[in-house]
Amino acid sequence: MTFEVFSYESLVHAVSGAVGSVTAMTVFFPLDTARLRLQVDEKRRAKSTPAILAEIIKEEGLLAPYRGWFPVICSLCCSNFVYFYCFHTLKASWLKDHQSSSPRTDLLVGIAAGVVNVLVTTPLWVVNTRLKLQGSKFHNTDIQPTNYCGIWDAFAQIIRDEGAGALWNGTFPSLLLVLNPAIQFMIYEGLKRQLRRGAPRELSSLEVFMIGAVAKAVATTATYPLQTIQSILRFGQFSKSTNKSTLLSSLATVKSLLANRVRKFGFLGLFKGLEAKLLQTVLTAALMFLLYEKIASCTFRVMGLSEHHKLH
Questions:
Q1: What is the pLDDT of residues 4-16, one digit of tens each?
Q2: Which domains occur in the chain, in start order?
Q3: Smallest Cα–Cα separation from 235: which of 37, 77, 32?
């Protein structure tokens, strides 16, 4: 399979995906704040999304649910640009040789794009997690406070105090979690093919929104326990007694953290915060796919490119 590294069509998809994801995340950002607190702050009493958001606002102020918005948006923009670009570049190369794709093809292409994305953008997500939780009032006394002045200062302090390798904390579960967007895109592309059934057409806004929501809901539920471990590893601000095991992103560490969570909270503890995560990611992904499809379609239409590119 041959592929073009630099492709105008892939660039349009990448920019559309990045803009769509940034807009959608901004709209539903407080839900992500609630999800992250439920994952990391184990001793917090509030269990539901509305309750934890009310608690955060009461304890930390009205704007607290939007703490860390800028680094999250920067990370998300870069991450989605890389993912969409790789996904559509690889898929276009496959279609050149095989003329059609299948769920297996979409899954494999999604995994490959995810691996590239993880290796390139994990440092951004580590810094993003630290900044998003900085200044929070934690109920878990093992968590140590941080004092970062911004994205670049966070990079500098992490490298100075923990070593450059700390920027890739959580890489192992992140590599396992490439299954999340891969499953999401496999389901999304499969549902698009079913709705078109051999008759090329532009899907309606409602159709795109619904299949985006379904795809993300399935992918999130299937991979949620690993997402929790990923958040804990990325945060990394625990007492020295727990730091040794937490900061080693290895299979043994992931198994240990999963077992520890089950021991503390039971099997359902692996899904603590899932309600907030589903509410946020399903709505965000659905809106993101809707914006992505419309931006890409309009761009291709303005540039006078073929239906193949618009519906690719």
A1: 667 788 889 999 9
A2: 8-310 (1.50.40.10)
A3: 37
